[in-house]
Amino acid sequence: MRLVFSMIGKRITQLLIMFLLLSFITFVLMKLTPGDPVRTILNVEDVSTTTAQEELIKQQYGFDRPILIQYGEWLSNVVQLDLGESIIAKQPVLQLIINRLPASVALTIGGLVALLVIAVPFSVLAAIYENKWPDYLCRGVAIIGASIPSFWLGLLLIFFFSLQLNLLPVMGRGTLAHYILPSVTLGMAMAPVYIKLLREQLIDILQSSYIESAIARGIPRWRILLFHAIRGSLIPLVTMFGLSIGSLLGGITVIEMLFSWPGMGELIVNAVTQRDYPLIQGYIIVVGSLVVFINLLVDLITMLINPQIMQEARRAQ
Amino acid sequence: MKDQLISIEHLFVTLNGSHQPLLEDVNLTIKMGEMVGLIGESGSGKSLTSRAVTGLLPKEMRVSGRISYGGNNLLELSDKERYKQLGIKIGYIFQDYRGSFTPFIRIGKQMTETIRTHIKLTKKQSEQLAREVLNEVGLEDKTIYHRFPFQLSGGQIQRAAVAMTLALKPELIICDEMTTALDVITGEKVLNYLAKVQKETGCAVLIITHDLAQAYKHTNRIYVMQQGRIVEEGLSEEVRCHHKHPYTKKLCSCLLALPGEDLITTASQVMVK
């Protein structure tokens, strides 16, 4: 238990360092990118405005002050859980994110479930029948899956399951049925890499001496596969998931837009196109913290799957 | 012939696509309650012979001949029927002790899993049996039962592997170079435990080793293998003192060049005491 607390402590320290670096870099970069937030605030992109009007807005929002002071002010507010107010929506950023975050997290979990349902059977089949037709079939499916863009895959699924067969809803979020198409699209988009990784891991493990020992003890093959082989091959899979969670949270934006999913995708796309700095900044901080938190969870799960890692962590302490 | 437990007759093992056999006309018998040694240098085909008995040969190898066990020719049985013999009738202890157990599952859990696969027992009964056999091989069940394999020393793991094999009371235990990866004293201790349990249960043991001193000390009969063939067989004492084949002579001369047999025996006796 002490080890777990120490790990959490380390991760919180990492989170703080990451938070400072990430927030500062994004703050500075956003100020340097083309586009004027003042014109966005005035809502007059194509109409000429007076300098006095612009100066007033700059003073009001603090854009006329040095960048470090602007950052310092923003940071002191963040410490008090105030991420500022959205320039466009005129609502607190934290509130806007909290309203949308659950839908995105739910979709991510749905995608993860779909990923497991797709990747595990395919890779197990490919590993058991290595270099036989089921293996070639699974590898073929993985290659085709990797070369299909997720938005097109989503469109195909909508076409067949919603428009042709009328089985599932096209868009929105409400019932469990609404989750199926976006989750499957997300899962299928991620599956090829995981199928390849899990297949190779399983092939290695199935040839290992501990599997041979289990066979020699007469343990049923299904038990060996499920409790000895698949469990062993999950470790790199979980680690990889932890590493790719950041890109996954970014990647679901396309799927959210495609299925009109009320997640953070639409929110952040609008914020970027309209230079809504407080919202972009808040989004980056929340997603960044989420990534660190999920990585902590991944570390704990990895230790549960493979206690040897826990022993090594103990020794390292 | 009546008390014969297993009989290997004219066994050939060939790699697919090759005409050169890896095992050539191997004949070997083991009687009930006997400890038989199979000796020879690395690559002589000892492990291949034992794997042919258990059906653990790689898929790319072809086997022919006859392995009579329990009135059946094992080579004619289906994979499923052969698989049923593993663990409960034929126990196997491997050389690589780190691979004897799945690294991320506790020793106790793996033992009960093995026991309950073959014997109809409740979880509690199987735990009790696992603890008993751990104690029998000189391990403290209170600590070992809940440990992971990587938390044990090589000697402890091998003894736990012996315990797990013994829990099922198989008629034949195949020990494939089980002490090679251990230090001399620990290896000797593990073999002494095996000999003790063998006497108590009356099972047959096939000890595969390239350590002649070990084979002489612990077995009743010895088979000598060279390049996939049995070149000599006989009682341990006979093979030791009246060997006929030049290869056995060569092996024995290597043994004589080593100073340690008596020392090993003495040291292990001290350790056991």
UniProtKB/TrEMBL annotation, chain A:
Which compartment or compartments is the protein found in?
Cell membrane
Q: Which UniProt keywords apply?
A: Cell membrane, Ion transport, Membrane, Nickel, Nickel transport, Transmembrane, Transmembrane helix, Transport
SUPFAM superfamilies, per this entry? MetI-like
Its primary localisation, in coarse terms, equals membrane
Regions that span the bilayer? 12-30, 105-129, 141-164, 176-195, 234-259, 279-305
Q: GO MF terms on file?
A: nickel cation transmembrane transporter activity
Q: How does it assemble?
A: The complex is composed of two ATP-binding proteins (NikD and NikE), two transmembrane proteins (NikB and NikC) and a solute-binding protein (NikA).
Under which name does UniProt file this protein?
Answer: Nickel import system permease protein NikB
From TrEMBL, chain B:
Instruction: Name the Pfam families for this protein.
Output: ABC_tran (PF00005)
Q: How does this protein sit in the membrane?
A: Peripheral membrane protein
Question: What are the EC numbers?
Answer: 7.2.2.11
Q: Which domain of life is it from?
A: Bacteria
Q: What class of enzyme is it?
A: translocase
The signal peptide, as residue positions, is none
Which cell locations does it reside in?
Cell membrane
Q: Which UniProt keywords apply?
A: ATP-binding, Cell membrane, Ion transport, Membrane, Nickel, Nickel transport, Nucleotide-binding, Translocase, Transport
Q: Which Gene3D superfamilies match?
A: P-loop containing nucleotide triphosphate hydrolases (3.40.50.300)
* SMART domains recorded: AAA (SM00382)
This protein's GO cellular component annotations are: plasma membrane
**Catalytic activity from the UniProt record:** Ni(2+)(out) + ATP + H2O = Ni(2+)(in) + ADP + phosphate + H(+)
InterPro entries attached here?
AAA+_ATPase, ABC_Ni/Peptide_Import, ABC_transporter-like_ATP-bd, ABC_transporter-like_CS, P-loop_NTPase
Residue ranges of domain ABC transporter in the record: 6-252
Q: What family does this chain come from, according to its entry? A: Belongs to the ABC transporter superfamily.
Q: How is the subunit organization of this protein annotated in UniProt?
A: The complex is composed of two ATP-binding proteins (NikD and NikE), two transmembrane proteins (NikB and NikC) and a solute-binding protein (NikA).
Q: What protein am I looking at?
A: Nickel import system ATP-binding protein NikD
Identify the species of origin.
Natronobacillus azotifigens
